[in-house]
């Protein structure tokens, strides 16, 4: 018997592998029918309510379409990996076409179209292999120090079977010289004009330093939608700020001092507010809400001069007189602080308490420090504290004992329910929204709080620990809200306690 052609061998081997692995790609139709399960009956495709909201907002995918997309995406990825190993040097990359759910795979050898089809993918015969394109990119990378300013960057374009070199308008000639100097085969490179101006992006974190104008330094308090809150004595409305790295950051949009000691800064597109506080030990503390802690509670402060220090709350509604005047309604603590820590975060566990105002003493001998309560700042400027929810653990007593309203229901694994009663509620004033979820023992139930932003539901707080019980707390402005209960793993009855402004 004559030897079998290589592509026939590949087809047979690949078919056997796929039969075992069950990796035939999912089309949109059959994935939609399976909804949250893979076509071969495998594990459900778990998609959080927060992610579903974002996909609907940004890609126009409803929950069913999103789950179908992820099922197809997962299967396509596994099929692509098998084809990469099987096709070897002929492999030219795999991709999902825009709006499609069937994997397309490039091959340089027409005979390899058969094993691609056997895998359930669509073959496309191209000139350059993935390895060739990778070597071209690596060559450009090695010459990056010589790239002209007009060149924005370069990347593989698998569907185009080319390396794309991006340049600003008018920089084409400089880009061509760069390619010639690098010695790249220009037959596999396409020069494209772009108006992109990439820049690094930075996180806004509580406790990090920021600078006011060209002079003084303060510390970030807590991230809010659009920026962060801090101390009023740090800057005046209209003043500009730069971050810890001296990159332009934002502008004071409001400031009050004395009388109060609060302000907020609206950040620019270089900076992304995050619901975390720098613990100055190589990590962060996640902010879950802004529930006020009672007098006697242990609290910790983060600031850019002295880092992370702790103490206790000694009093609330305290007044203190500075040389500039008296500030009232402050939190008095035994936490130490020093100049530059002003504006920084005060936390009780994962609950935001206030921003550093002033005090006496230092972090060598100790002292007394005062803090402007964070909830007052949020209410004064109509801001929403950024939180990740959390808390978790077992709610005290019965499920959410003491909540204003209680809702009960039952969910099977992977499903969600909206409360109150499958709908939403309206808050007519700013204040704290809290939810306490008790799910069945041995399950993983999650809780989300969402707010209507005018065009879609946006998650503003979430509790996603591995526990069956979750708690969320969020200080927000007036608007429409709803709670989402998600049976991440396991099924059964749940109880949800809700308290709203």
Protein model, in words:
It contains eight helices and 31 strands. With 501 residues, it is α+β, with helices and mostly antiparallel strands. It folds into four domains: 120 residues, no CATH class; 64 residues, GMP Synthetase, Chain A, domain 3 (2-Layer Sandwich); 180 residues, Beta Barrel (Thrombin, subunit H); 95 residues, Jelly Rolls (Sandwich), CATH 2.60.120. The strands form seven sheets. The protein has a seven-stranded antiparallel β-sheet, with helices on one face. Strands 17-18-19-22-21-20 form a six-stranded antiparallel barrel. Strands 24, 25, 27, 28 and 30 form a five-stranded antiparallel β-sheet that branches. A hairpin with a 2-residue loop joins strand 18 and strand 19.
Task: Give descriptors for this structure.
501 residues; alpha+beta; GMP Synthetase, Chain A, domain 3; Thrombin, subunit H; 4 domains; 7-stranded antiparallel beta sheet; 6-stranded antiparallel barrel; 8 helices; 31 strands; 19% helix; 40% strand; globular; disordered N terminus
Radius of gyration: 28 Å
User: What is the C-level CATH assignment of the largest domain?
Assistant: Mainly Beta
Overall structural class, as computed from helix and strand content, comes to: alpha+beta
Distance between the termini: 82 Å
Mean pLDDT: 82
Corresponding CATH superfamily of the largest domain: Trypsin-like serine proteases
Number of domains: 4
**What is the CATH third-level topology name of the largest domain?**
Thrombin, subunit H
Residue runs with pLDDT of under 50 for 5 or more positions: 1-45, 389-399
| Number of helices in the DSSP assignment | 8
Please report which band the strand proportion falls in: under 5%, 5-15%, 15-25%, 25-35%, 35-45% or over 45%: 35-45%
Helical residues, percent: 10-25%
Pfam families: Pro_Al_protease
Protein name: Streptogrisin C
Organism: Prauserella shujinwangii
GO molecular function: serine-type endopeptidase activity
């Amino acid at each position: 018997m004559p030897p079998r052609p290589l592509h026939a061998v590949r087809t047979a081997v690949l078919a056997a592998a796929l039969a075992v692995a069950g990796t035939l790609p999912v089309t949109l139709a059959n994935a939609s029918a399976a909804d949250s399960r893979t076509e071969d009956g495998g594990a459900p495709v778990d998609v959080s309510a927060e992610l579903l909201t974002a996909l609907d907002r940004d890609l126009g995918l409803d929950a069913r379409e999103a789950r179908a997309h992820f099922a197809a995406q997962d299967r396509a990825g596994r099929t692509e990996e098998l084809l990469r190993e099987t096709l070897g040097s002929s492999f030219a990359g795999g991709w999902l076409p825009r709006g499609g759910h069937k994997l397309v795979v490039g091959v340089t050898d027409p005979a390899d179209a058969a094993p691609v089809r056997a895998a359930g993918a669509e073959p496309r015969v191209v000139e350059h292999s993935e390895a060739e394109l990778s070597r071209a990119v690596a060559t450009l990378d090695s010459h990056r120090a010589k790239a002209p300013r007009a060149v924005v960057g370069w990347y593989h374009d698998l569907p185009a079977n080319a390396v794309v070199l991006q340049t600003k308008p008018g920089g084409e000639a400089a880009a061509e010289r760069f390619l010639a100097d690098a010695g790249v085969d220009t037959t596999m490179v396409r020069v494209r004009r772009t108006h992109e101006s990439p820049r690094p992006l930075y996180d806004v974190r509580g406790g990090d330093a920021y600078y006011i104008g060209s002079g003084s330094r303060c510390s970030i308090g807590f991230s809010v939608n659009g920026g962060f809150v801090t101390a009023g004595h740090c800057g005046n409305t209209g003043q500009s700020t730069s971050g810890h790295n001296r990159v332009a950051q934002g502008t004071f949009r409001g400031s009050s001092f004395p009388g109060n000691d609060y302000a907020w800064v609206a950040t620019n597109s270089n900076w992304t507010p995050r619901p975390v506080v720098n613990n100055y030990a190589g990590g962060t503390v996640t902010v879950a809400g802004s529930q006020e802690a009672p007098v006697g509670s242990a609290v910790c402060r983060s600031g850019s001069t002295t880092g992370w220090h702790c103490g206790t709350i000694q009093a609330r509604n305290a007044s203190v007189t500075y040389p500039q005047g008296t500030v009232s309604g402050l939190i008095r603590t035994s936490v130490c602080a020093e100049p530059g820590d002003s504006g920084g975060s005060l936390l009780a566990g994962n609950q935001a308490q206030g921003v550093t105002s002033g005090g006496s003493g230092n972090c060598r001998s100790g002292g007394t420090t005062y803090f402007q309560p964070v909830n007052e700042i949020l209410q004064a400027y109509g801001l929403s504290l950024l939180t990740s929810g959390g808390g978790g653990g077992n709610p005290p007593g019965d499920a959410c004992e003491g909540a204003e309203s209680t809702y009960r229901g039952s969910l099977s694994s992977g499903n969600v329910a909206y409360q109150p009663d499958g709908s939403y509620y309206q808050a007519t004033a700013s204040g704290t929204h809290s939810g306490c979820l008790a799910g069945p023992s041995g399950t993983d139930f999650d809780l989300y709080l969402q707010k209507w932003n005018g065009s879609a539901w946006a998650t503003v707080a979430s509790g996603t620990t591995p526990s069956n019980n979750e708690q969320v707390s969020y200080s927000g402005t007036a608007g429409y809200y709803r709670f989402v209960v998600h049976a991440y793993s396991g099924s059964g009855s749940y109880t949800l306690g809700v308290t709203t402004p």
